[in-house]
Fold these 2 entries.
Entry 1:
Amino acid sequence: MSNLLMLFKQKYNHIFGGYSPCQWHVESIGLYVADYKLSSLLFSQIYNKLYPFQSVKMINAIYYHKSYGPTFGAGRDLHITIDFNGGCSNIGNTYKQDDYQNAQSTFFCLIKPQIVECEFLMLTFM
């Protein structure tokens, strides 16, 4: 599947997520996927911000592995575990963030995401 918009809602109603035009697979080996269009992004509703993909890291837009949940960026800028109960946020490795923000709390406002709802939408552009 490609052109996926992923929306996550955490325990305190904070909404965050990401978009990538890259093809997502479920493979036994881990693999990074490049975004040569540079259109992948992450977002956080609580900060009302978009975090664009950095062109110098274009080969690390997303990461897939059969035992991982959605993962954006080489440094796990946004990573959700396969059971959606855990994850980490380390924004600023592959996706650009403002220097004044705490990389670990950007998306969750907590140590763990505590996701209560998620939606994956496949976008079609005409």
Entry 2:
Amino acid sequence: MIRLPASAHKKHIEVLTQGLVLPLPPISNGHLKLIADILSDAFMQVKQQDRVTVEDGDESTVSGLLHSTLGYLIDSDLLVGQVFNNVSRGEETYNFDGSKHEKRPDLSLYLTGRTIRFPLLVEAKLIDHAKQKTVKLYGDNGIRRFITGDYGWASQEAFMLAYVRGKETPSGTLAPHLKQVGQTDPTHYQLIMIQEPLQRLSESLAVSQHHRPFTYIHVTPPHSPGAITLWHLWLR
């Protein structure tokens, strides 16, 4: 494997971010709640059309159906078309310092009125104990990607989806896990807070906030990305 010098990584990031001030401006809570509603409605359509896959298929297949449904809604639903310009699946992107070129978040939501260079990212995981898909994997292979700067490093918010095949909820499963790990290793999830449940989607939705220890390499100090706010939407 050819290893590029650090200067080449920095140049990639400089070109990608030219003309932008990072982190990008925050997305309002009202806007994010609307996006959560759209994602939830799209998932319900997927479930109505293919319940077998939702209840027994792998994570990639469910995300593929969700991606296709969102694309249909962008074309057919006036409100959804006003919120999103496009949605892509598994699109390659850089990590925060350009040293990793092939990071592939599950879904990239291109919001109207926002730069197309940094879509709102969505990472999805199964919660299915029969298949050893636990909240620990959700955290270690999902949440931590946003903390370390693999995903969402230019933004202040992102979404985590869980396709739940049991009785687990953000308040009953996710919040205790984050708090318990935080007691033994505060640096693992860098947890600032978790708020759950949120009003409109009750037990399905929670919001957590996490410190991000990395710094931007393409600008002079101050170059901290600040905290990342993760919206956790658990769907069943």
